[in-house]
Amino acid sequence: MSEATRDIEALIELMARLPGLGPRSARRAVLHLIKKRGAVMAPLAKAMAEVATSARECAACGNIGTADICDICRDERRATGEICVVEDVADLWAMERGQAFKGRYHVLGGTLSALDAVGPEELRIPKLLARVRDEEIREVILALNATVDGQTTAHYIAEALDGSGVAVTSLAQGVPIGGELDYLDDGTIQAALRARKRL
Ligand SMILES: [Zn+2]
Q1: Averaged pLDDT, 119-124
Q2: pTM value > 0.90
Q3: Does the structure show a pLDDT above 70 at 172?
Q4: Where are the zinc fingers (C4-type) (predicted)?
Q5: Can you name the residues that pair with 141 across neighbouring β-strands?
């Protein structure tokens, strides 16, 4: 194998590690990129290099952006007294696409899992409880996936906030059993947010 071919093979191998891409689609994507290297590949490489150095987690909510505090946390209009708790940044972005929620978020970074030994300290749950205390929060909306671990986590947080005077609600209607937020359409997310219920 020539050195040039080795570089391309290495690129295909890296691409194949992306979620949703196997070796076959990675090969197709790389071929496409090489054919469109002026219009697509060069700008993509530049954008990736930039984001690779600038991307960081928001120190308050865990969203991913390019500043220490994300746009949503910096926006005073979003200090509504509501925090929407999600498992992953992809869920936060899905909620934002739905455009139904005007408050702020809190990204847990996963769910409680006895099997994988994930406890509250491994997630951003202590940070959530501190925010509820410090930010004049009236309502915590649990927008967790309708999986066993998601619901276990929801109940843990509801119990931790019991007696704090804060309303704890969860998304209802719309989220299918075993469903993941990131795969829902915008309308379903809007309906689920509207139909949230007290735990
Ligand atoms: Zn933030």
Answers
A1: 85
A2: no
A3: no
A4: 58-73
A5: 84, 169
Task: Report how far ligand 1's centroid is from the alpha carbon of 60 (Å).
Answer: 5
* pLDDT of residue 194 exceeding 80: no
Structure tokens of 65? 């952006």
Question: Could you tell me the distance, in angstroms and rounded to a whole number, from the CA of residue 184 to the centre of ligand 1?
Answer: 23
Per-residue confidence band for 196, with pLDDT thresholds at 50, 70 and 90: confident
**How many angstroms is it from 64 CA to the middle of ligand 1?**
8
> Rounded distance, CA 107 to CA 59, Å?
11
Task: Give the residue, 29 or 121, on which the prediction is more confident.
Answer: 29
SS3 of residue 168 by DSSP: strand
Cα 58 to ligand 1 centroid, rounded to whole Å: 5
Instruction: Report the C-alpha gap between 182 and 104 in whole angstroms.
Output: 18
b/e code 128-139 from CB counts within 10 Å (16+ = b): bbebbeeeebeb
CA of residue 140 to ligand 1 center, whole Å: 16
How many angstroms does the Cα of residue 73 sit away from the middle of ligand 1? 4
